[in-house]
Amino acid sequence: MEREEDRVETLLADGTVDHGPDHGEDTPPVDETRHSESLDEEDNTLKPRFIRKVTDALEADDQEQVYNLVEPLHPADIADLFELIDGEYRAPLARAINDLLGSEVMAEMNDWVREDLVDDLEPEEVAELAEQMETDDAVAMIEDLDEEDQQAVLAEMEPEDRAAIESALSFPEESAGRLMSRDFIAVPEHLTVGDLIDYMRESRDLATEFWEVFIVDPKHRPVGTCMLSWILRAPRSVPLADVMKRDQTLIPVAMDQEEVALRFQKYALISAAVVDDAGRLVGQITVDDVVHIIQEEAGEDALLLSGAGEGDINEPLPRTIRTRMWWLFINLGTAILASSVVALFEATITRLVTLAVLMPIVTGMGGNAATQTMTVTVRALATNQLTSSNTWRMIVREWWIASANGWGLGLLMAMTCQVIYQDWMLSFVLLLAMILNSINAGLSGVLIPLGLDKLKIDPAVTSTVFVTTMTDTLGFFFFLGLAEVFALH
Amino acid sequence: MEREEDRVETLLADGTVDHGPDHGEDTPPVDETRHSESLDEEDNTLKPRFIRKVTDALEADDQEQVYNLVEPLHPADIADLFELIDGEYRAPLARAINDLLGSEVMAEMNDWVREDLVDDLEPEEVAELAEQMETDDAVAMIEDLDEEDQQAVLAEMEPEDRAAIESALSFPEESAGRLMSRDFIAVPEHLTVGDLIDYMRESRDLATEFWEVFIVDPKHRPVGTCMLSWILRAPRSVPLADVMKRDQTLIPVAMDQEEVALRFQKYALISAAVVDDAGRLVGQITVDDVVHIIQEEAGEDALLLSGAGEGDINEPLPRTIRTRMWWLFINLGTAILASSVVALFEATITRLVTLAVLMPIVTGMGGNAATQTMTVTVRALATNQLTSSNTWRMIVREWWIASANGWGLGLLMAMTCQVIYQDWMLSFVLLLAMILNSINAGLSGVLIPLGLDKLKIDPAVTSTVFVTTMTDTLGFFFFLGLAEVFALH
């Protein structure tokens, strides 16, 4: 890309080297004093006072003031600023800081906030931003646009950049193909360390930031990787074949990003080669792009289990309401099912209304126990710790936990019940019901996610409904049913 | 260029080249064919068939067979193997593969599994492993040992390694000081690119893997960092001061690992300098160590919210039971509180037992709605997306969601209730109770985590109890209370 060539030019000509700020991933030098005035050092977030200053300046339409306030910020903090201020200030802020709204800022910005912003920009402005960005970041920005705007933006771009982005968009969302950057360094096996260094010194349009060099065979298939630190420390005459690491993790271009993240983590990768179906090197994924995914995918489970969807606090309100209400609606179904079980025993309850008082305890305890087991199972599945090799051990384990909890807490409650109601039969029924429901909870909590996973359904999304149905419905059934059987009144 | 050629000659004279593979972090070359036989390529986990082979060989006490099976595995997969086989096989496996049980394997292994294993090893064996490891990994292994064993192991170590580990252990657990590695490259500002390359070529005992070089002032305070890729591409004559990036994120040695992880993520760092109180460079943290933390910290919330503690499936059973039962015990308290509210209205229920049938719907829906809001709030707090700057916006947002859900689902249920029970008053009470409890749920779900966070209590650990107490207790109270008020019978 243009700016990159320029840089290398100056580098080789008169040795005057820029300090990164004008390109790619780098960050502008920051004047610490002004920095600390804007950033809360403790938790590294922007201070409310600073944000008020910005919004006040925006209110006063004092663009210069706004620019001066924002200028010393790190791009990631500028992105945060856009997320933290209210919606109506975002477009004005973007206009006020114009050239500060660089590619890194857009790359760091929350999807929804960025989408808002991009809608306010002209296609050529978006195209200009996209051209400065690494392919993967550009794709992240453009893939959210609707078909028509996408075309408009792509039309404004340099042919080669457009080609790169179009090919990226041709891969499924959340796949390695969307994630990978096409800027990487690949050299033939026969080079020596010296050749490689000279090649890198001389070539114009190389990636500005890379951590490993890929060595490829004549068919452009990766045969090894070489860490820059090794290249720097080996004598020039050593053949790359001798310093490179042959064992490497290759990422198929269609691999899901969650799987990519797991491999980066498992093998502690800094960068990895992405290969097409023919095994040819087509791109690289670097860890800094994966870090966000690891964080999202890991945090996702909590949100999915709770039915909060993406749980993104910047998501448009109507969309959030739709997601959450739909979930509550489904769970209402399970609640109705549970209460219809109660309805079956109306007669029993009328005879002994205390049953109505105690029944929430049986279902509540079951629900909590099931949630514990379910969450552990879902996490273990998501992190590949739970595989068919140790499934059985996991089930047995949860059975023991459930029994222990059932007996322990069941006895406790039964005694409390006896103290309060002086009714041996009732206390006995409560004990039995709690033991049964605890075991029911433990087994549902582990078997339902496992079953869904086997059926290739994401257990995080669907487990809760089934599990609570089991614990509530059966909970009421055990308790009221036993009460009926033992003719309590 | 000339100068460089000469220098290489001399280097070649006594040139000892390190071919990465024999070194600390590196991974043995893998014979792909045998690899694929052991690994399930789809999800990159060990095949059950392979694991059975290993355990069978262990049963048969055929150590050579075991060794040959395990030998081609990547250290991370060997670590997985230890986690996947049953407890009783672990010590025999360790003995069978002896030298394959290297530092990387131990570093990758689950804490509990490693602890088991370490207990079976002699102090000097542990010391030997620790000496091969990066400081941070060694610390992770040793910090789990009890005081006495720690001393025994440390006593067996080389003075300098011991010193490094003892100083690491002097920092609080989960702090940057424990995480950081003491192997890093720091050079004075006045060097040129050429000087640096020569320095790295000549010095023998440098870290084998590093991605950035730190430039320090005479007081050993970091003044900038330099990516290897820049060094490789700049002419030898350029002073480091001109290629280095002055703006950098410094990690105070006492910073909590969760905060470290957030900064790596926010600023897309590959490595960062760790500084002591005097601002002196004392270590570096690299992203591959942070990746595990990001994953843990992000996944943790789901587990903590469910009261499953660490939710580690390798945790000793008694410990797991204790954690979970304690949580269920506390929640039993809230359940008792809720049911005592029901007890208040026994008379009302006796007059109209249908109330007992419908009441779980009110509390159930409230509980689910609250969980959604609570989870979103906890995640937003954990990821620094929710700060005092946008707290108010968040509360208002949740208020709207809660009202929408309350009205929508309340009306739905009220109509259903009317169809079934033909009782306008009852349906009206149900509607009112569901709206009130939905808003109660929404506000508790956002205010309770926020309040706990303000009190510096981890909202993920404690929110659930308070929130469910609110939704259950008030849920029953709204519904039955209103029924009483409107004299339903």
Automatic annotation (TrEMBL), chains A, B:
Xref: InterPro entries: CBS_dom, CBS_dom_sf, Mg_transptr_MgtE_intracell_dom, MgtE_N_sf, MgtE_transporter, SLC41_membr_dom, SLC41_membr_dom_sf
One of the record's GO molecular function terms: magnesium ion transmembrane transporter activity
Gene Ontology cellular component terms for the protein in this record: plasma membrane
Provide the topology term for how it sits in the membrane.
Multi-pass membrane protein
Q: Which UniProt keywords apply?
A: CBS domain, Cell membrane, Magnesium, Membrane, Metal-binding, Transmembrane, Transmembrane helix, Transport
Residues passing through the membrane, by range: 325-345, 352-371, 399-421, 428-452, 464-488
Q: Tell me which residues make up the CBS domain.
A: 180-243, 244-300
- Ranges of Basic and acidic residues composition bias in the record: 16-38
Superkingdom, natural source? Bacteria
Q: Please give the residue ranges the record annotates as the region Disordered.
A: 1-45
Where in the cell is the protein located?
Cell membrane; Membrane
Give the family this protein belongs to, as stated in its UniProt record: Belongs to the SLC41A transporter family.
Record's function text:
Acts as a magnesium transporter.
User: Subunit comment for this entry?
Assistant: Homodimer.
- Entry protein name: Magnesium transporter MgtE
Q: Which organism is it from?
A: Novosphingobium olei
> From which lineage does this chain's organism come?
Bacteria, Pseudomonadati, Pseudomonadota, Alphaproteobacteria, Sphingomonadales
